[in-house]
Amino acid sequence: MVILIIEKEYKEAILNGNISLAESLASKAINDNLEINLVIDQFSEAIREAGDLFEEGEFFLPELMRSAEAMKAAMTILEPKIMENKEDRYLGKVVIGTIEGDIHDIGKTLVAAIMSAEGFEVFDLGADVPVDKFIDKAEEVGAQLICISALLTTTMVGQKRLIDNLKERKIRNKYKILIGGAPVSRKWVEEIGADGSAENAVSAVKLAKKLLE
Amino acid sequence: MGSRLIDLGLQPGTPPESWNITQPEKIKQIHLEYFSAGSDIVLTNTFGGSRLKLEAHGHGDKVKEYNTRAVELAKEICPPNGYIAGDIGPSGKFLPPVGSITEQELIESFIEQTTILAEADVDLFFIETMVDLKEAEIAVKAAKRVSNTPIFASITYKKTKRGFFTIMGNSIEQCSEVLEEAGADAIGANCTISSEEMVDLIPLIANSTDLPIIAKPNAGQPQLVEGKTIYLSKPDEFTRDIQQMIKNGATIVGGCCGSNPKFINEISNQIKREKK
Question: Which of A72, A189, B128, B210 is the most exposed place for a label (fewest CB within 10 A)?
């Protein structure tokens, strides 16, 4: 019973975007010496539900961003514990941005927010980002994953250019590459040799985790 | 405009408004194509001409130049019975919690752009592709504050399982109420949704307002085929949908992304035929 009540609170904190509740739950988990992975699973479950609600048209951008912020606040508190125990909850470094020529920020920002909320170390380069900047940043921070967003069919070609560029530099295999954006199809993923794309922010994060396993 | 600019060679990373200075003949050519196709109103090449948007491209110091020249170019080819609309798109920035821009920054950016467009003597303002009702409201109020020029305000909706909303969650009723209150003279919808989906949207807007209604759908969804962007709608199907929207109450109609002068020509011919 106790666990059920706690589960409800986690969900409430995230779905209501209640930062202080999320923080106090995280602090309490540490004080009570709870199994950190289980705690994070609870938060993850809640953020996935927020993503589902967004897909359903129940949640909109503001609600989803508030949920992601609440989760991030909780993860920040849990972070020292994660590091200290060397539990393999540290998911890796991600460089993310919208490709040059494209100023559509929303989808990319959502993915970045949820990734960061879930525990990735996210380097969000913003929108209209040149190919070289993606690669230089990934090299600089030692990222494992590069996420490239493009909302326009005219800028999607930048996703291909980035991958070609990595191949030319002979570092394509150092990274997993996810591409996103409304016009991105499975065929395009295959054509340019990306590692995947996802329907929405939550499944993008799920896929990212899987790729880095 | 945007789709035609890309056809004519606009490269990614270049703000379209810079062509008002560097490629004025091409801009005039596009306006002329639309007037020749039967447009009554053409929109100036100033969609991204606000300071906030141009700053993102490092062209923040060109706001006045780009906007003034855009109106001059349209006027140079405007037929006596044509109208020039000063086009105003979103800032590209978001208010909290999604982004960190302040309302004051939005107000200043839109006051600046609408002032320049009004001084250049546009016939009306066309505020469009707004995904956040608050930003749309700020833009309408800014336009209202600087001149008596009529204001058209158009929202971008997305279709969810619960109906049409902006991505921020604003309903059709909210949008109509707030935009009317802010002083818009015509309201409606443009971009993102196709003509087929917009057929369902227009009656709902009509139920929520007595103002004239704008309908400016995309020509389908963009697809990349062998490296080229194509939109799947055909002008005749698109026109059939537009005719339905007119029956349902739309009085200001046109095309957004992926449409081109052929679409406008088809619509214009059809409307004239029906009037006879």
Answer: B210
The domain that contains B180 carries what CATH number?
Answer: 3.20.20.330
Number of domains in chain B: 1
Measure CB to CB from residue B165 to each of A60, A66, A128 and give the nearest one. Answer: A60
Backbone φ and ψ for A159, nearest 5 degrees, come out as -65, -40
Angle of the B235-247 helix axis to the B261-275 helix axis, nearest 10: 50
* Contact present, B190 and B156 (Cβ < 8 Å): yes
Asked whether the beta carbons of B164 and B157 are under 8 A apart, the reply is yes
The boundaries of the domain holding residue B42 are 2-275
What does the block give as tokens for B57? 């491209």
Other beta carbons less than 10 A from residue B82's beta carbon: 17
Q: CB-CB: which of A56, A62, A188 is closest to B98?
A: A62
A3: pLDDT confidence band, cut at 50, 70 and 90? low
Domains detected in chain A: 2-84 (1.10.1240.10), 93-211 (3.40.50.280)
Res. B178: pLDDT tops 50: yes
pTM metric for this prediction: 0.86
Confidence band (pLDDT; 50, 70, 90) for B99? Answer: confident
User: pLDDT of A137-187, one tens digit each?
Assistant: 999 999 999 999 997 777 888 999 999 999 999 999 999 999 998 778 888
Instruction: Please answer whether residues A146 and A211 qualify as being in contact, where contact means their C-beta atoms are separated by less than 8 angstroms.
Output: no
Chain B positions with Cβ closer than 8 Å to A: 6, 11-13, 53, 56-57, 92, 94, 97-98, 160-163, 165-169, 221-224, 227, 229
Phi, psi of B227 (to 5 degrees): 80, 0
B195-208 and B235-247 helices cross at what angle (nearest 10)?
A: 10
Question: A–B: how many Cβ contacts below 8 A?
Answer: 69
Distance CA A166, CA A153 (A): 21
